[in-house]
Each structure stands twice: as C-alpha cells, then as structure tokens.
Protein: Phosphoserine aminotransferase
Organism: SAR86 cluster bacterium
Amino acid sequence: MKSKIANFSAGPAAIPQEVLQEVKDELLNYKNIGSSIIEISHRDKTFVDIANQAKTDVIDLLNVPNDYEVIFLQGGATLQFSMIPLNFSYLGKVANFAEIGSWSSKAIKEASNICKVNVCTSSKDNNFTKIENFDEWNIVQDTSIVHYCKNETIQGVRVNHDIETNYPLFVDMSSCLFSETIDIKKYDFIYACAQKNFGPSGITLIILKRELLEKSNKDLPNILKYDAHAKENSMLNTPNTFGWYVAGKIFSWYKKNGGVKEMEKNSIKKTNHLYQIIDNSDFYINPVFQEQRSICNVVFTLQNNELESKFLSGAEENGLFYLKGHRSVGGMRASIYNPLEFEHVEHLGQYMIDFEKKYG
Ligand SMILES: *Cc1c(COP(=O)(O)O)cnc(C)c1O
C-alpha cells in the first residue's frame, strides 16, 4: 500500500500507511471490546496491556539495559528543556550545554532560566554547519550534566561520534531515535518527542539510568519529577492514551521491518541518494560539513534562491510535499524519517535533476 503523497514533513511527520490503516480499522471498536481505545480508562487492562507492550518493545528495539528506566511523558521535547535542569542542575554548580543548532539553542535558553549554564561549544559562528571536535569542547569541572542534541532537525547536522565524559550525559534524540543504532550504556539520559519517528505529537520518550532518579531533586511538584513518573509507571496522571497506542503500533512495525539496524541502513541509503545529487551539481547546495550531515533531515538551498518558490510549487505538482525549510532558516528541507519510502526519495531526486535541467 502506498501513501497518497510523498510526505517530507519535519514533524508531525509521516506514519506508516499500514499503521494508519490499522488505527482506522480499530478506532470504533477496539478488538471487539465494544468501544474505542480512546474512550476507556488508562487503568483498564486493555490499555495497560498496550502501554506495557509499547514499553517492552522500546526496550527490545533499543536494547535498553536493566538499570535504565523507560518513561512516557507529555509536554513534548520542550518540557524536557526545563524539566532536566529542574531535576538535575543542583548536582553541580554549572550545567554544560553544546550549542550546535536551533534546538540546542532553545535548550540553553530554557536551562539558563533555571541554572548556571556553560556553553561548552558553539557552532553559531559558522551558522551551525560544522560541530567542533569533542576534544575542543570546554567542559567545566564541578558540573551537573553535559547536554547535547544528537541531530539538529532544522540545520540538518548531527553529532556522528560518541561523546565520552565522566559527567552524566543528556541527549536530545527527538529527530533521530530509531533511525540509528545506539549503545544506550553510553548515555545517562535520552529523550525524544514522538512526532518525528514514532507517532502523533503529545508523547515524549525518556530513557534514563535508574541511579539518576535517586539523585534527582525531590523538592519539586510531582508532575515535574521523573522519579514520581517512574514510580507510577508513567501513569501519575492520565497519559496521552491515543499517542501511546499509535506509538506502540509503530514500535511493532519497526520490529516487523528489521528493527533499528534496518532503519539505520535505510536512512543512510535514502539521505545519501539526495546528498549525491546535491554534490554532483552546482545548482543545489548543502552547507553542512560532509561527515556531520544528518541521516534524517537533508537541507539544501538553490544557488539562485529566486527559484525556490518555483521549486517548491513544482514539487507539489509532482506530489512532493512539505519541502520548505524551517521558517527560521529558509531554503529546503527533506525530512526523511523511517516511514518514508525509498521510492519517494527517488522521486524527489528525479524531480531535482529535472528541475536543474530546466532552470540550471
Ligand atoms: C522537534 C524537536 C524538538 C521540540 O519538540 P516539541 O515536541 O515540539 O517540544 C526538540 N528537539 C529536537 C531535536 C526536535 O527535533
């Protein structure tokens, strides 16, 4: 089954067509319980089973070790920008934040309202096109956490190697979780909002080392405490049941389709297809340092930027949608998350080649 358009949206983003079909089929009467899944209690066994299965599948897909906790929250990745410093900044005098794109800048801004922040590296001066080598990061001593964003969704740049530090390592993986294989043990705290790679907005996945929970700030309202959410198995209050349910379906879709290893292989194949077309032309430009290019978000501009609106409207006429870059940076962006099929990417590539022939 193929989707109607090629959906390059950055988030909320494409969901596998089979999953949407299943949701549609089940929506009125979930597995013959006589009601919809979104009109029963989150404490009902039917929903609790869905919730537990989703959690088990996350653990399975990402090989989450036993000493880690998996939590489903609301409030998007943005709530994490405040919740992390609230829970952990008291551990040290300063929190270290890497600034490698728009999302890390936002995280820094929010954290600065709560604690003292040391920006340990910034690629603002090169317009977020090249991240400084980790050796050069200026991580101060007596620090609570080190925070970075693994994949900058807006600039299309990624941290492509491990960050080794003795301090607790916190990582925003909102736009790359499930698109690349990771060794969870190398991180202390991972978070990702769902609407890029695992469903509708309104769910945020947290994977954190359990020992961090014991050290977290207890002097907060319950709703802001990771510890309280973990103790209640992410049901401290009513969760986003619909989001959780759809996320669960996407996790099982991942399992059926080869797991994260296969997703990574496909992400590299799909994005390389476009990077090659860009690199083989003087017409398209991708400004990102080659080795740090995202395997989820391909950004590009046209040498002649007056042609951009023509490029975008022509793309839509060809069934290629949501290619406009983020409003803060302009240009074009093809977000290529796991559900997007290779043939859609090939279709975009062909459109780019044809457009260049016509206007280049
Ligand atoms: C989308 C995104 C966010 C923000 O997510 P919200 O759910 O809108 O709060 C944060 N970080 C990254 C890397 C993102 O891609």
